[in-house]
Amino acid sequence: MIDLHTHILPGLDDGPPTLAGSVAIARAAVADGTTAVAATPHVNTRFRTTPDQMERALTTLRAALAAAAVPLDVLPGGEIALEPLPTLAPEDLARFGLGGNPRVLLVETPYSGWPTALLGQIVALGDRGIRPVLAHPERNAVVQADRTGLRALVAAGALVQVTAASLDGRLGRRSKAVASALLDEDLVHLVASDAHTPDVRAIGLSSVVHAVDDERLARWLTQEMPAALVAGDPLPPRPPRASKRRFRLFAR
Q: Which of 159, 211, 234, 239 could form a disulfide with 168 if both were Cys (CB 3.0 to 4.6 A apart)?
């Protein structure tokens, strides 16, 4: 499985403060069946992460994982908030490209409110050849009440990433209900952990197959779509939803 939203890099945001914490998250990811993660530190008004800082921390973590024999591929990225998005230079946006793909960008959905400029920003990214991936919109209060705005963003070319802990209920009933509704309405394109520490939105995606109750769809959400985004390949079509019945966990 491939996890394209994690805060695994040490000392950059509200993820692990130490390298040891980053290695602990990586070990937990591997134990859960994850083979690759994107390191997506916050880029916002609180955490003004630069591409240089992200890349230095990425190099440090990769070296530590190699020394510890932890077989996890850690890829570059960033979770870009709406406020700094218009101010970032094109070359910086490319360096924050999700999973190392300069044509894909993880954009943070605000937890409250629905900025009037949001649709225009998404359209502007598309006009520049950048595919936006919206992080965790199921946790936004406006989306929880009405999905009209989110549908407009998807129609404009955005992809939607929901958090595994929303789908499996760890983030509460409301987030679970909305994540499930988005999935039923074909408004979810990939699932990620949004892991910050080993015990905050814990790393790992294996619970998704049980929450989705459809092995083929779970594979598309956690393997096929993330792999295509990283590689820059054509996006695989969404498989038809199977009737709701239990499947064995697919091979890792």
A: 211
Residue among 220, 219, 212, 205 nearest 250 (CA): 219
Model confidence at 112, pLDDT cuts 50, 70, 90, reads: confident
Q: What is the residue type of 65?
A: L
Segments making up each domain of the chain, as ranges = 2-231
Percent of the chain with pLDDT over 90: 85
The order of strands in the sheet holding 104-108 is 42-43, 79-80, 104-108, 131-135, 159-163, 190-192
Contact 79, 108 (CB under 8 A): yes
Q: Which fold has domain 2-231?
A: TIM Barrel (3.20.20)
* 91 close to 53: Cβ distance less than 8 angstroms: no
Convert the chain into a string of H (helix), E (strand) and C (coil): CEEEEECCCCCCCCCCCCHHHHHHHHHHHHHCCCCEEEECCEECCCCECCHHHHHHHHHHHHHHHHHCCCCCEEECCCEECCCCHHHCCHHHHHHCCHHHCCCEEEEECCCCCCCCCHHHHHHHHHHCCCEEEEECHHHCHHHHHCCHHHHHHHHCCCEEEEEHHHHCCCCCHHHHHHHHHHHHCCCCCEEECCECECCECCCCCCHHHHHHCCHHHHHHHHHHHHHHHHHCCCCCCCCCCCCCCCCCCCCC
Compute the distance between CA of residue 89 and CA of residue 183 in angstroms, rounded to an integer. 34
180: its two tokens: 């499930």
